[in-house]
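The authors assume throughout that readers already know how a fold can be written as discrete tokens. In essence, backbone conformation is discretised, so a fold becomes a row of integers matching the chain in length. A single example would do more here than another paragraph of explanation. For illustration, here is how one protein appears when written out as sequence plus structure tokens:

…
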Amino acid sequence: MKSRFSQDKRAHYELCALIPEVIVKQSTAEVKELGQCLLVKWNHVMPLPSAFQSELQRWMNYWKRQLPISASSVTNLLTFHADATFFPNLRELLKILAVLPVGSVEAQRSFSCLRRIHNWLRNTMATEKLSDLAVIAMHGHEVPISRADICKRYMDLHPRRMMASSLFDGRDGD
């Protein structure tokens, strides 16, 4: 990986080295090199960039003492291990790692979904509504959305635009 990507692109990949299973297998020199790479790329998001190298060494030593490793996910690391007092910089980097897509599929899916919505709207809707629709379209399968509830709320907000008798309602408007 190091030979295929530039230093700038490698910094995204190097965030994965903060995962305990990976960092415990690295030498002190490798962790120092990792720290330099991450510091160059991410120092603008770190609360205390001057303390990052020592913090990274503490993180490695912490996990070497914790064998066997109990953290199973980045969110678990953030919740139980990456304390903002002892590991403020690592906490910020783990937050970034938690939201970065693992592969290009997630990013491509979100872009194609946004393109589909944008074509449908034909630039007639505000950006805020567009982003709300994009989130619903991308993650709608994870959250149960009741069309009847949406229609009822819309009718309550805009009684003149949509009368009680509609295709969704099934009533005759009496």
